[in-house]
Amino acid sequence: MKPRYERPGVPSGTTFTCFTRRERCFDFAWHFHREYELTLISAGSGTRYVGTTVERYLPGDLVLLGPDLPHTYASEPSDQPSEAAVTQFRHDFLGAGFFELPQFGAVRDLLGGAARGLYFSDVAPELQADIAGLPHLTPAVQTTRLLDVLHRLAADTTATPVTGAGYAAAPSTAVRDRIDVVVRYLQKAHTEPVLLDEVAALVHMSPTSFSRFFRRAIGCTLTDYVNQLRVETACRLLTTTSLPVTEVAARSGYRNLANFNRRFRELKAMRPTHYRAALTR
């Protein structure tokens, strides 16, 4: 299956859409669209997949994604529903050339940075409330509020790119199709041994050709991507269970504890035990 191309509907009386997404859980649904997307998680936790990057999300998670950037959110099992405030808009939703006006230079730069996705790590409660409230406003107020939100986000110095420097949106449907087959497979299989030959065979390529293809299309090696998946699985287990670290490592796909500790420190800059202590105290 390929990442689903979405064409979000736009309600009458406006030029963009925003809504509250409330579901029992967010299922893995790899997709992309031509719109920018601003997503604020208001309830639930799970894993956020954007391009080459795999990260855990919690309530308060705020991300701005650029057009054609494949992504999805997958919830962790919970008795509580998952909820997010989502706003989707095209670059010209306020008219062609609007963001070329000199007074909107900072917003123009913000939207340019969204090509790799932008994560905002320290969002003021007032701004979170304004974003969460967007779906409940009339179209005119909604529009001015969104412009204000973008202006405030443009001044946020905590914004960091979500995807790696080597990542760019897949240039063709054929590339997207192949990458999607692999990403969906790894999302389910990463806790088991992942063999290059088997993954390459999924998209009918030789292992050598596939390695070059994956790195060129995604911006990291297959091993690096699998380690991201495994470490994020470990993060979830460390914060939601009391399993010993050795068991967390095994359930995350690591058969060697020393390798698990090394990979975890590379990606999280701390030991698994320190991560658990910091996130559960």
TrEMBL record:
- Keyword Transcription applies: yes
Q: Which PANTHER family match?
A: ARAC-FAMILY TRANSCRIPTIONAL REGULATOR, TRANSCRIPTIONAL REGULATOR MTLR
Q: Which lineage do the record's taxonomy fields give for this organism? A: Bacteria, Bacillati, Actinomycetota, Actinomycetes, Propionibacteriales
Q: What is the protein's name according to its record?
A: AraC family transcriptional regulator
Q: Please give the Gene Ontology molecular function terms for this protein.
A: DNA-binding transcription factor activity; sequence-specific DNA binding
Query: Mind telling me which Gene3D superfamilies this protein's record contains?
Result: Homeodomain-like, Jelly Rolls
**Which InterPro entries does its entry note?**
AraC-bd, Homeodomain-like_sf, HTH-like, HTH_AraC, RmlC-like_jellyroll
Q: Which organism is it from?
A: Kribbella soli
Keyword field = DNA-binding, Transcription, Transcription regulation
Judging by the UniProt lineage, the source's domain of life is: Bacteria
Q: Where is the HTH araC/xylS-type domain?
A: 180-278
DNA-binding: present as a keyword of the record?
yes
UniProt-listed SUPFAM superfamilies: Homeodomain-like, Regulatory protein AraC
